[in-house]
Amino acid sequence: MSPPMSSGGKRESGTARILGSGASGIAELMVFHPIDTIAKRLMSNRGQVSGANLSTILFKAHAASPIHTKFLSLFPGLGYAAGYKVAQRVYKFGGQPYFRDMIDKQGGGWWRGTFGAKWGGMMMHAAAGSLTGIGEVVLLPLDVLKIKMQTNPDALRGRGFFKLVTDEGLGSLYRGWGWTMARNAPGSFALFGGSAVAKEYFFKISDYSSATWGQNFVASIAGAVASITVAAPLDVVKTRIQNANFESQQGGMSIIRNMVKQEGLGSFFKGLTPKILVVGPKLVFSYTLAQSLIPFFGKYGQSLILDKGHSGGARKELTISLIFSASLYIIAYLIWYHSCMSIDHRVRHPAGITGNEDQCRDKARPAAGIKGRA
User: Fold this and answer.
1) What is the mean pLDDT of each run of 10 residues along the chain (374 residues)?
2) What is the CATH number of domain 14-370?
3) Separation of alpha carbons 53 and 76, rounded Å
């Protein structure tokens, strides 16, 4: 799952990884944020889901609104989501290879001696993914705010990031950090490990960076389905901790007891079907895009800076990549801006205000009125 190494075994530069994986994160966000919102709202629902209340669960206050307003209501917290998704993709695509190298350097002999050459390599690949997943806890505040905007916008109404930190304390944004790490460790292990197993045993590939697009497609599906299934129970617990009101003191064990007692064991897999259904296209989309853009930025970007005589074809490919990446950021802004404008006429009526309206109003206030706000 890690980005490929260029010919000769040299890894792509950090700049290329940031640009390529960041652009893939934005593109993934634009396409899959609405589906993620649906999954989060289903996981947060504590009652029975039926045809009668499904629209209310998914669209909340916009259940009776026109179809375009319903669609835009699935983009709450887009700013927080963009920050989280881009940072996560940059960290995940760029971080796992470094952890893999560190494990190989410090104890590669032990891994190969214990598990054998083939399994040792796969286990190191999976363990590096697990360490990467645990480290993602640093990004938890952005994930918490994204989930709250998706499922509990009232908790953020009228407050920006710095106002939230002042009012609630930074610790409130790290609620559920232990459950997040507990979910990420096996989830990322299964993601990278499942991908490695598929490449080793199904395609007989020992150099994972040499896999074709089709091979990466299948390996990504295998790893991602394994990851989401393994992490699903703890993911539901983590989501419920994070989307609660800031003053809530309910812990993870209390949530687990209540879920078992009131909703049954099946509640630990709520929202799993939408996630499974989106795993294939989501990972193939972001993975393939990152694998395409990172080499472009790494191979052509540096050479164009240092070598003025580089071919016109390389310049054209780099230009296309830059334009595509910039376009993704522009599209992200336009979706947020359009969602603000489409509901602006209701800002004067507090009863109809949801999280998106508050974001719009905060952005629209004069600078003097939002001093200290995000």
Assistant:
1) 43 70 81 80 77 81 82 73 78 80 90 90 91 88 73 67 72 78 88 88 81 78 85 81 64 78 78 72 72 68 51 54 55 51 43 46 44 38
2) 1.50.40.10
3) 20
The residues with which 5 forms a beta bridge, in sequence order, are: 11
Per the structure block, which two tokens stand in for 260? 């078992």
Q: In this predicted model, what pLDDT tens digit does every residue of 139-159 receive, in sequence order?
A: 888 777 777 776 666 766 666
Tens of pLDDT along 193-252? 988 898 898 888 887 767 777 787 788 888 888 888 888 888 888 777 766 665 666 667
Domain boundaries, the chain: 14-370
Distance separating alpha carbons of residues 6 and 3, to the nearest angstrom: 9
